[in-house]
Amino acid sequence: MDDLDRRLINRLQHGLPLVPQPWQALANELNSQPQLLRQRVQALLDDGTLTRFGPMFDIERVGGAFTLAALAVPEERFDTVAEQLHAMPEVAHNYRRGHAWNMWFVLACATPDGISASIAHIEQLTGLPVLNLPKEETYHVGLHLPV
Amino acid sequence: MSACTCPSDPDLTHRLIDLTQAGLPLVDDPWAWIAERLGISREQALQLLQQLQRDGAIRRIAAVPNHYRLGYRHNGMTVWDVEDARMDQLGPLVGAQPFVSHCYRRPRRDGWRYNLFAMVHGRSAEDIDRDRQRIRQLLGDACRADDMLVSSRILKKTGLRLNRPAPTDRAQAPSQESSSCSE
């Protein structure tokens, strides 16, 4: 990763400008060339430094729903349950965390009913109770990781 | 072209989500790429995106980094049992800290006493311990207990992806490995 990659990652976390020539605008800002910037983004996607490039939708503003949920999975079943959740498209993120509730995941669905159906499905699939913790209030959202 | 030009048209919005939730291709003219697939003009496509961003339906069109690859190997979900009556004052205060990426109030449950969640990210275990300590100071005696759940493994990170009943004649989304909405 060189200096241009760093500046590009920092800048692109704030978003592509919504102007008629977005890559040209970005190139002007970064004192570079549009074609080169796109090649760099592709390379960063290919090597896994970036996981995605595209619109970040607020699911709830477009009628969808999501929630944070957790399972307390017995250690000997951990990998199996992780695979079961991995196969579900509703499971957006899943992290192992150091706690009795050791598996924490985000469910995203096109409708609020989809959330309860997904939770019921997971409970049936795993035989484990789901700790469902939908947000009641948002105080801040805005991940920025400077490099 | 035929599609409605009204930017808040929900059908058009949902087609845009279907088209781009896996990612936007790295082409010279992304607005034209979207316009062609939605059957609208390039100007309408850009207006649609601008409108959705103003409405908050699109936060931004951004690159989502892999925390680990950028050196942020430590992420802690700090959780706090905060006196309900003081939450309206303290939640926004914790959320406003520059080292907090996400901050929410969530319900208490049987076996789960914590009602305030704040995510912190750092390059070392000491970084996130320090962040936790700062939050503890802010909350003071309004906090009755707290914990920090540190992630030890990413099991899945595809981002939020909505499965909708498929309309016919759907354009294929570009093939990026993953998608994300709010994270």
TrEMBL record, chain A:
Keywords for this protein: DNA-binding, Lyase
Classification via InterPro entries: AsnC_trans_reg2, HTH-Siroheme_Decarb, NirdL-like_HTH, Tscrpt_reg_AsnC-like, WH-like_DNA-bd_sf
Catalytic activity: siroheme + 2 H(+) = 12,18-didecarboxysiroheme + 2 CO2
Gene3D superfamilies: 3.30.70.3460, Winged helix-like DNA-binding domain superfamily/Winged helix DNA-binding domain
GO molecular function terms listed in the Swiss-Prot or TrEMBL record: DNA binding; lyase activity
The protein's Enzyme Commission number: 4.1.1.111
Pfam family, one: AsnC_trans_reg2
Pathway connected to this protein: Porphyrin-containing compound metabolism
UniProt keyword Cytoplasm present: no
Enzyme class: lyase
Domain Siroheme decarboxylase NirL-like HTH: 5-49
Siroheme decarboxylase AsnC-like ligand binding domain residues: 67-139
PANTHER family, per the entry: SIROHEME DECARBOXYLASE NIRL SUBUNIT, TRANSCRIPTIONAL REGULATOR, ASNC FAMILY
Subunit comment: Probably forms a complex composed of NirD, NirL, NirG and NirH. All proteins are required for the total conversion of siroheme to didecarboxysiroheme.
Family to which this protein belongs: Belongs to the Ahb/Nir family.
Function: Involved in heme d1 biosynthesis. Catalyzes the decarboxylation of siroheme into didecarboxysiroheme.
The name this protein goes by in its record: Siroheme decarboxylase NirG subunit
UniProtKB/TrEMBL annotation, chain B:
Record text on subunit structure and interactions: Probably forms a complex composed of NirD, NirL, NirG and NirH. All proteins are required for the total conversion of siroheme to didecarboxysiroheme.
Superkingdom of origin organism: Bacteria
Record's keyword terms, sorted: DNA-binding, Lyase
Domain Siroheme decarboxylase NirL-like HTH: 14-59
Catalytic reaction annotation: siroheme + 2 H(+) = 12,18-didecarboxysiroheme + 2 CO2
Domain Siroheme decarboxylase AsnC-like ligand binding, first and last residues per copy: 69-156
Role according to the record: Involved in heme d1 biosynthesis. Catalyzes the decarboxylation of siroheme into didecarboxysiroheme.
Organism: Halopseudomonas bauzanensis
This protein's pathway: Porphyrin-containing compound metabolism
Compositionally skewed regions (Polar residues) per UniProt: 173-183
PANTHER family: SIROHEME DECARBOXYLASE NIRL SUBUNIT, TRANSCRIPTIONAL REGULATOR, ASNC FAMILY
Entry protein name: siroheme decarboxylase
InterPro entries noted in UniProt: AsnC_trans_reg2, HTH-Siroheme_Decarb, NirdL-like_HTH, WH_DNA-bd_sf
Enzyme class: lyase
Family: Belongs to the Ahb/Nir family.
Disordered: region residues: 160-183
One Pfam match: NirdL-like_HTH
Molecular function terms, GO-annotated: DNA binding; lyase activity
EC number: 4.1.1.111
